[in-house]
Amino acid sequence: MAAARGGRDGLMTGAVRATGKPIWAVRTGIEVIVLAVGWVLARNRTGSPRGAHAGMTVT
Predict the structure, then answer these.
(1) Which class for 15: exposed (0-12), middle (13-18), buried (19 or more C-beta within 10 A)?
(2) What is this structure's pTM?
């Protein structure tokens, strides 16, 4: 099975080499940062932390 080779994977392997930290710690840190950035961008776009459909009711 081949390993994925995306942008975050390259960043992760580079950060592991540069810092000497374990892979799990670097990967977790990157994922937390990506999650936080996505949350901030979604909040700025919709004005709500729950997304564009917050408070919408379906009848």
Answers:
(1) middle
(2) 0.61
The number of C-alpha atoms within 13 Å of 15 and in the hemisphere containing its C-beta is 16
Q: How confident is the model at residue 1 (pLDDT cuts 50, 70, 90)?
A: very low
pLDDT digits (tens, 9 = 90+) for 3-54: 657 777 888 889 999 999 999 999 999 999 999 998 888 877 666 555 555 5
Which residue, among 14, 10, 17, 8, has the nearest Cα to 38 in the 3D structure?
Answer: 8
DSSP assignment letter at 16? H
Residues 6+ apart with CB under 8 A from 42: 49, 51
Question: Dmax over Cα atoms in the chain, in whole Å?
Answer: 55
Cα–Cα distance measured from residue 8 to residue 52, given in angstroms and rounded to the nearest whole number: 27
